[in-house]
Write a structure and sequence with these properties.
Layout (H helix, E strand, L loop, with lengths): L1 H12 L4 H39 L5 E8 L7 E5 L2 E6 L2 E5 L5 E6 L5 E6 L2 E6 L4 E6 L2 E7 L4 E6 L5 E5 L5 E6 L5 E7 L6 E7 L5 E10 L2 E10 L11 E8 L5 E6 L2 E5 L3 E6 L5 E7 L6 E5 L2 E7 L7 E7 L4 E7 L5 E5 L2 E5 L3 E6 L4 E6 L4 E6 L5 E6 L2 E7 L1
Antiparallel strand pairs: 1-32, 2-3, 3-4, 4-5, 6-7, 7-8, 8-9, 10-11, 11-12, 12-13, 14-15, 15-16, 16-17, 18-19, 19-20, 20-21, 22-23, 23-24, 24-25, 26-27, 27-28, 28-29, 30-31, 31-32
């Protein structure tokens, strides 16, 4: 017993080996770090497997998980508006949710109403009328009275409205905030800039792109002009910050994919422009076939052609906002509309639907049980709202 106590006392007096202590602590830390790395690597692998499984999953059917009664009025036009939809006629406009309930409705009297929808905003005007109404998710936000008849309207995702007017000698173009306050206006003439064929606005409302058509030395020529209504454009004549001439070409479409990227389509090319202040042409894809239709959304542009390879009736080439081709989609569907939602493309008509990835993989192909008037994507890639002649169905792909 006395020897044990003496040994313990000697051990207590022995100096501590600090280097050994540090080595042990380092080993413990390394073991813990290794364990964390292994766990994280396992989670990454599992996540990649799950993501790949979801991404590559092909749906073969759908289930109706909800139905509400709703019937369209005669002569009504229906368009999507976020996760709701709009129905309008010369008598007024309604915003309806997936439960079939009107979120808001406003009566008006118009001969030929034209409606522009972008993001959370809607603009409505009567062709050749002198009033423009602006709505958001809650209802009317602005009302505009114009001095000249309204020919066309264009709307940004932020609620800025561009209105092309009709005048005897000039074509005025006015910009308004969502509350109806005028931002700016400028006038175009055939002799000076040509006739404005189409117009597009960036989401923040700063940039406006216009395609003009004019005759130069007896030859039809188009000009794509960009106007900046921010600080940069104030120092430029008529706010014009950049422009491109396309001799012998017609450019019927100019629009924006985001605040920094615009695109235009001519009868011979697809042009991309970059820059949030002074857009610059960064890529031009030459087209060797006649374009049947153009769709865009979610940062992509899709050009539809009659397919000449024999694989299907139609082909749609999809490009990202850099102008790189993402994929080609082949389908026989006589489509009523084509939607971009995330990295998916929905091609549908009243009786059937085909869903692709932007790379061309078919995710779903099938028919509807009822005649579909409108197909509305949700926040889930596999769930949609179907507006039919008899009601609104919520469907889940299986």
């Amino acid at each position: 017993m006395r020897e044990r106590k003496n040994r313990e006392a000697e051990e207590e007096k022995a100096p501590i080996d600090r280097s050994e202590f540090r080595n042990r602590r380092r080993q413990i830390r390394l073991q813990r770090a290794l364990t964390v790395i292994i766990v994280l690597a396992a989670l990454v692998v599992v996540g990649a497997v799950v993501y790949s499984s979801i991404r590559n999953h092909v749906y073969t059917d759908y289930e109706i998980v909800g139905t509400v009664e709703w019937h369209p009025s005669s002569g009504t036009t229906i368009v999507p508006f976020g996760n709701t939809f709009l129905s309008y006629s010369p008598d007024g406009i309604h915003c309806t949710n997936s439960k079939g309930t009107d979120v808001w409705s406003f009566p008006f009297t118009m001969q030929a109403p034209m409606v522009a929808v972008n993001g959370d905003y809607v603009a409505v005007a009567d062709t050749n009328g002198r009033a423009i109404y602006i709505y958001d998710k809650t209802g009317l936000t602005g009302e505009i009275s114009t001095n000249s008849p309204v020919q066309r309207i264009c709307l940004s995702a932020g609620g800025v409205v561009a209105a092309v007017m009709d005048d005897t000698t000039t074509t005025p173009i006015h910009l308004y905030y969502k509350d109806g306050t005028q931002i700016s206006y400028f006038r175009t003439t055939m002799s000076r800039s040509g006739y404005p064929v189409t117009i597009g606005i960036s989401g923040n409302g700063r940039l406006v792109g216009i395609s003009y058509l004019y005759v130069d030395n007896g030859q039809m020529t188009s000009k794509v002009a960009f106007y900046n209504f921010g600080d940069v454009g104030r120092n430029e004549t008529d706010n014009l910050v950049s422009g491109y001439d396309y001799q012998g070409k017609l450019v019927p479409l100019v629009d924006f994919l985001d605040d920094e990227t615009a695109f235009a389509v001519s009868n011979e090319g697809l042009m991309f422009y970059e820059g949030g202040q002074r857009p610059v042409n960064t890529n031009t894809i030459l087209l060797h076939e006649e374009v049947r239709a153009v769709y865009h959304g979610s940062g992509y542009v899709g050009l539809v052609y009659y397919d000449k390879t024999g694989q299907a009736r139609y082909r749609m080439d999809v490009y990202d906002k850099k102008g790189n081709q993402s994929g080609s989609l082949y389908f026989d569907t006589e489509y009523d509309d084509i939607l971009f939602t995330g990295d998916h493309v929905v091609v549908y008509n009243a009786t059937s639907c085909t869903i692709f990835t932007t790379k061309g993989q078919v995710k779903f192909e099938g028919g509807f049980e009822e005649k579909v008037l409108l197909m509305i994507p949700s926040s889930y890639a596999s769930r949609f709202e179907l507006v039919t002649e008899n009601g609104i169905q919520t469907v889940q792909l299986r």
